[in-house]
Amino acid sequence: MMDRRIRKEELKIAIHEAYLRFRECNEGRNADYIPYLANAGSSLFGIAACLPDGEIITAGDCSSVFGIESISKVPTALLVLKDYGSETLLDMIGADATGMPFNSVLAILLENEHPSTPLVNAGAISAVSMVRPVGNSDGKWEAIKENIEKLCGSEVRLIDELYRSESVSNHNNRAIAWLLKSYNRIYDEPEMSLDLYTRQCSLGVTATQLSIMAATIAFGGYNPITHEHVFNSSLTSRITSLMATVGFYEHTGDWMFSCGLPAKSGVGGGIMGVLPGVFGIAAFSPPIDAAGNSVRAQRALHFVMEQLNLHIFNGERAFIVEDEKN
Ligand code: GLN
Hints:
The structure is a single chain. By secondary structure, this protein is an alpha+beta fold. The protein folds into 2 domains: 2-66 and 204-321, Beta-lactamase; 70-201, DD-peptidase/beta-lactamase superfamily (Beta-lactamase). Helix content is 44%, strand content 13%. It has a 5-stranded antiparallel sheet with strand order 3-2-9-8-7. It has a 3-stranded antiparallel sheet with strand order 4-6-5. A two-stranded parallel sheet has the order 1-10. Helix 7 crosses helix 11 (207-218). The longest helix is centred in the middle third of the chain and has 16 residues, at 137-152. The chain starts with a strand and ends in a 5-residue tail after the last strand. It binds glutamine. Glutamine (GLN) binds next to loops.
């Protein structure tokens, strides 16, 4: 495999150019099925990349707090992988793309042997049900939140208004939780699992925090900011495979084909991308497309990946290197 060196300056220029290019893009609409998200500032837009040496490159609104939503499925899947191992995750949840929307009930009916993958709602609720200590809501919440904080390297807080907003409108997810119960694919109390899933989706994060979480995944569990080893390096390939397979739901194939960045989106407007060994990157902007993926964030990440020719399957090994001194 060929090595290719990319100077930090090149990455900085690509990120800033992406920001300037797509700042004015007016496509997409805020998610409106969760009332809180409908009111988020539609012009907010930020891009952040975290490098192996802990340097973070940012452009735009990288300190704005927004709902992590489905991106929370990634850290909780990691927690389950850590606690149970990959074979058990494969057996109890699965690792297959559904090719359907994130909240599909049909996907569960078609695959009654598995909730498919921890990165769609069914599998994520199932994953939450496996978090230890089983049967103890407070203990489980502590474990979920602490895991996210270790990955991000800083504190995250619940957005109460979002949690309330989502709790009164999550009827579809309630149906999913009980359907999983009927297939013996939920491993704790369904209502508790649903509540914890809703709560984890309502955590507030910034683009900078997500870039650090992505970097921790990209660097085999080593958080470049706190210098802590958060998980065993063997799990990077597992979690990145899940992201590459289903991170954009029914549009994952298109996304991987054109952009080549294993990534996970959330209806709050965030996207977190992991390029193993290279960097963690995140972008955020509330207006989303019909599949629930942020339009500006997709464009920005796509631009950076293309500009620097970073497609994960391009047969090269990229390294971000210091700028040359004159
Ligand atoms: N909390 C949202 C839901 O379950 C998350 C969906 C998403 O971000 N794709 O509907």
